[in-house]
Amino acid sequence: MRAFFQIIKLELLSALRSKTMLIFAVAVSLWMTLGRNILKGTESNMYQLSVRYLLGIAFSVVLVSLGSAAAGALSSDRAAKRLQLTMIRPVPHFVIAMARSLAITLYGSLIIAFSLLMLWAFEGRGRMCDRVFSPVFEDARRVAEEGYDRLYETNAKFREWADQNDREFCLKYLEDDILNEYVTVDPGKSMSWEIRDVPDDAEDFGVRVRFIDFFGRPGSVAGKFTFRGFSGSVDNPVRSQFYVPLNVRSSGSSGGSALEFHNNTDIPLSLQPRKDLHLLARSDSFAWNAFRAWLVMTAVLLIVVSAGVFFGACLGRGVAVFSVISLLIVMVVSPATVEDYPDPMSLNTVSRLGLKASEFSAWVTSPVGRFSPVSTLEAEERVEWSEIGDAAMAGVFYLVLFSFLSGLTMSRKQDD
Amino acid sequence: MSNVIEVESVSKTFRDFWFRPTVKAVDQLSFSVAEGEVFGLLGPNGSGKSTTIKMLLGLLNPDSGNVKLFGKSPKTLAARSDLGYLPELSYLHPFLTAKETLHYYGGLCGLDSKTSRQRTRELLEMVGLADVANRAVGGFSKGMARRVAFASALIGKPRLLVLDEPTSGLDPVSTNEVKTLVKELVKGGMTVLMTSHLLGDTEDICDRVVILNCGVKVAEGAIGELGSSLSDFFLAKVGEGRKFEMAEFLK
After folding, report:
1. Tell me: the pLDDT tens digits for B168-214?
2. CB-facing half-sphere around the CA of B156: CA atoms within 13 A
3. In angstroms, what CA-CA distances link A54 with A38, A39, A120, A280, A413?
4. B63: which strand partners?
5. How far is A59 from chain B (nearest CA, A)?
6. Optimal mutation site among B92, B104, B116, B152, interface A, most CBs of chain A within 10 A
């Protein structure tokens, strides 16, 4: 155990004495300060811009730089022949990789914390975040599977289409249809949706919603949302997506879990509740939310750094650094390519192979890509503990996996 | 007396990216080193000394044959915990001080903080670097760096010390000190395996030697058994091989 901490200490001392940490801190300060002054000239929401650009770019730079540093950690030591002096000591080789991954993550997380602290100083003081609750629906995947089986039995046209495509593609198609399904609230009528798990002591609510404008008449929405005795009205909003604070409290009806909308117009109003209807409950301060986001960011960094250390254990420094940067680029690009999901029937063989490769890349990099603490902070939504738990578990899993693989390859690599 | 090192019919061939053999570094090498012995591994450049040492340290896997330290595979933690190694060049972390370097390796050897500090102090005194204990080793001369590396090889109180060219880069006074130190360590029960190009030094310290040429053992024996001068014996053995190679080449 002492060996483990000695290796962590060595890595931190290296970062401190080589002034890497200081340079990072100065660079982050300069970026946040100068960036903020540039953003001051815009008319858009300053908070959102600050989170998206100042924090988002600082976090991306930390991922790229420390991923590259991790790729160089073992490979440089091997090239300088220092690694063998550690490897011949009575320390399991995976412990060497694990300790170095943790040390690099530790100082990366300090830099992220510093960025968040600066963001708090600029924009975060007095700001709150919301918990987001979605209406309860049946699982879209399950509905799609049931629909697929039913349609396959009863609908000849569907059967013909399904036979020409693979099942997975058809299910995704049906699932998209279900997620985009819209409901219509008739004039003068009400509709309600069940919302679960809202804490009993929550009092400050709002609704984020988007109505579909079928008739090309913007601003034709008027109505009232009600939840647990709190209500709020909307009347001819300017934007298609808007926020309705439920700031009127009526006496008596404080329980219940239904979010209700009453249509006050003389036209039917449609919306896609699976996508576009959310109840927001005021949670806690930006500072706490930033702390939770920091935990998720640290876990994401741990995954990238562990992969970097592994690349450095089995490749030369240059190739290892290139691999980490490629991994991060693929992580950013692949999900967008897969999201667009063009119809495979319209693709030629080469494009289909490209799509399959993109899907594979998105799958490989999904442990990092599925966590998005920066966009959650930007939306002023609460980073949930479940997300922190998932991120931490993914971080620990990949740390252990990559450390064991690094330990195995470190010995083999000496043969070169 | 039990054997600390046992090497049995060990061969190692290096291969290129396509696994084609490029050089046979060690061929059917066998020798053993008894406890408390100072054993020399001699040979010209490229004779397979470093490869043999790397296999002894568990850094390389032999293609065939067996290597045992204290009766165990050198890859086991138990074998590694009784091992100290001084490489040919010092390879120190330049930003650490001499004290931190020893403390770091002490930690890796599993010493607790108090013991590690005490041992660091003793070893720095022993190698004459107590006055510069808090200076970064990146600024040390080659000789000073060598002493730090020597001390770090001894920090875990090893039973076996592997020295690769221990006097390389040292002035005559320091060389003499190292030789005296090795003799002292052996008196204390330590086993030493060393390589050196300086046959005079080897003759002074070693009890027995193995001479390698092109990965093959050409001679083995106690210093006294190899003739009046180790240098003459070495040149005769290695020179014979070289002459034969040249003749083959000219053919």
Report:
1. 777 888 888 888 888 888 888 899 999 887 777 788 888 898 988 88
2. 29
3. 11, 9, 12, 26, 40
4. none
5. 28
6. B104
